[in-house]
């Protein structure tokens, strides 16, 4: 029996993969997810590798594909990518679709049980025999802590503000990101006429207005009105940003996946893709040879791809946070070089699309 603690996007998708491979699977989730609200601003960018794997499992959430990506910053040439770049999905919609598919594959989903780990899984105070326990319970994983698998966490010195906005349908296939002195601002299409703003800002930057309409107006100006007028839908939410990485991904009979194992800055939208790649590799290794050998192989296959991506995101944040004149000139030269080199653009696009994510 495989027990997955956490039925979010990664945990529920892993359950589908394990069940499709013939395993008996139970998922524990705190609450049954309801339908996403019309103004829900928590979204993920799925790269082509993630989309292909989800499709192979029969997980089909509503998606908004994008085929154009614009990146620019102060004194820098525009950097554009075109082609099948990926799709945006509302997190709750993906979770719902994955849980529904898991149930259709015979996965047992238990809602609201008291789950803990003490040299084995305990459910509502009783020992629960398991061949494998998977901690997919997020960045603040209680299972990880109880299993004494330490995670090194670092404050990134920024908050991220999320806001759903109405957009001109002419830009429904365009994802855009502008690097500002205070941090990156992204506009991610989630519907033919809607997008989500993700505005990462340094703690010391001037606070954004409380009025969502004012935030949308500032974002329109920050994008130099290239995306037309942005109109706020609903309220903005703000969360602190940090990154972290577990020193180990497993101990006998237990593995960490997704945010329970690693977290990164959201500026390139790679977080959920790394988690889904974790799930894919773990399912494949477990199918080939169940046991601790599979967990060791999973950890070897995923630790360094995840760590290199985390460090790359920290590096991008640091580079675009520099304000000294030499740094600004060097940054502008670097972006301009990529913008004018087809080979470098292709390399960057391959990274973003998941071709170098380390997934099997």
Automatic annotation (TrEMBL):
InterPro entries: FAD-bd (IPR002938), FAD/NAD-bd_sf (IPR036188), Ubi_Hdrlase_CS (IPR018168), UbiH/COQ6_monooxygenase (IPR051205). Pfam families: FAD_binding_3 (PF01494), NAD_binding_8 (PF13450). SUPFAM superfamilies: FAD/NAD(P)-binding domain (SSF51905). Residues 130-284 form the FAD-binding domain. It comes from the Bacteria. GO terms for molecular function: FAD binding. PANTHER family: UBIQUINONE BIOSYNTHESIS MONOOXYGENASE COQ6, MITOCHONDRIAL. This is NAD(P)-binding protein. It comes from Litorivicinus lipolyticus.
């Amino acid at each position: 029996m495989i027990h997955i603690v956490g039925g979010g996007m990664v945990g529920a998708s892993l359950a589908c993969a394990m069940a499709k491979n013939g395993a008996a699977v139970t998922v524990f989730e705190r609450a049954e997810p309801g339908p996403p609200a019309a103004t829900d601003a928590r979204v993920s960018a799925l790269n082509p590798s993630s989309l292909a794997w989800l499709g192979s499992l029969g997980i089909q959430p509503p998606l908004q594909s994008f085929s154009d990506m614009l990146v620019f910053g102060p004194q820098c040439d525009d950097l554009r990518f075109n082609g099948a770049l990926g799709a945006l999905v509302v997190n709750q919609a993906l979770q719902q679709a994955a849980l529904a598919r898991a149930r259709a594959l015979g996965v047992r989903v238990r809602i609201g049980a008291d789950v803990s780990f003490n040299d084995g899984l305990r459910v509502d105070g009783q020992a629960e025999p398991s061949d494998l326990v998977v901690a997919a319970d997020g960045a603040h994983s209680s299972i990880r802590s109880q299993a004494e698998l330490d995670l090194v966490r670092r404050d990134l010195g920024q908050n991220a503000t999320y806001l759903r906005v109405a957009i001109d349908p002419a830009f429904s296939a365009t994802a855009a990101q502008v690097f500002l002195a205070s941090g990156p601002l992204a506009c991610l299409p989630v519907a033919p006429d809607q997008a989500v703003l993700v505005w990462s800002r340094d703690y010391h930057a001037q606070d954004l207005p409380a009025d969502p309409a004012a935030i949308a107006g500032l974002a329109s100006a920050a994008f130099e009105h290239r995306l037309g007028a942005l109109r706020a839908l609903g309220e903005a939410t703000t969360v602190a940003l940090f990154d972290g990485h577990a020193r180990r991904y497993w101990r006998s009979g237990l593995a960490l996946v997704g945010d329970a194992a690693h977290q990164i800055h959201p500026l390139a939208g790679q977080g959920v893709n790394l988690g889904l790649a974790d799930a894919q590799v773990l399912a494949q290794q477990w199918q080939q040879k169940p046991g601790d050998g599979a967990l060791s192989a999973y950890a070897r296959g995923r630790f360094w791809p995840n760590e290199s991506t985390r460090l790359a995101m920290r590096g991008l944040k640091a580079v675009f946070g520099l304000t000294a004149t030499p740094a600004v000139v060097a940054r502008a030269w670097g972006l301009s070089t990529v913008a004018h080199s087809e080979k470098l653009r292709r390399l960057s696009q391959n990274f973003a699309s998941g071709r170098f994510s380390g997934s099997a």
